[in-house]
Design brief:
By secondary structure, the protein is mainly β. The chain is about 0% helix and about 35% strand.
Length: about 130
């Protein structure tokens, strides 16, 4: 079961509709759904029409929308339209899954969009 815990959040003005898009990755530069881990700056915590402010979380234990099957402990990145997936070699890592989750479901992970996991390893190659 998905849960949330301590988190840090802020508001972003959206440039597309986020109605029904809670827990997808958002890009700060344009307020739209992120299409990669390095573009993502947080996770949408709400739902709103285009042009409105929406709360987004950038650090903490957060819910996310899985765009593929994910196993417990998998490192996470962002794929097309703000979905999350397990990170592969060279992907920009934004978090780690707390439990297994199926594609299309809501999962829980530990996220840090400020200082991503790769920043602490010398083996990261973009």
């Amino acid at each position: 079961m998905a849960f949330e815990n301590v988190k840090f959040s802020h508001g972003i003005q959206t440039q597309e509709s986020w109605v029904g898009a809670t827990y997808f990755a958002i890009a700060l530069d344009d307020g739209k759904r992120a299409n990669s881990g390095d573009e993502a700056t947080g996770i949408a915590l709400g739902s709103c029409d285009s042009g409105h402010m929406m709360e987004t979380a950038f650090f903490g234990i957060l819910k996310f929308k899985a765009g593929a099957g994910i196993s417990k402990g998998d490192k996470l990145t962002v794929t097309t339209s703000g979905w999350f997936k397990g990170a592969g070699s060279g992907d920009y890592i934004v978090g780690q899954a707390y439990a297994a989750v199926t594609s299309g479901s809501v999962g829980t992970g530990l996220f840090d969009f400020v200082v991503p996991v790769y920043a602490f390893t010398s083996s990261y190659v973009k």
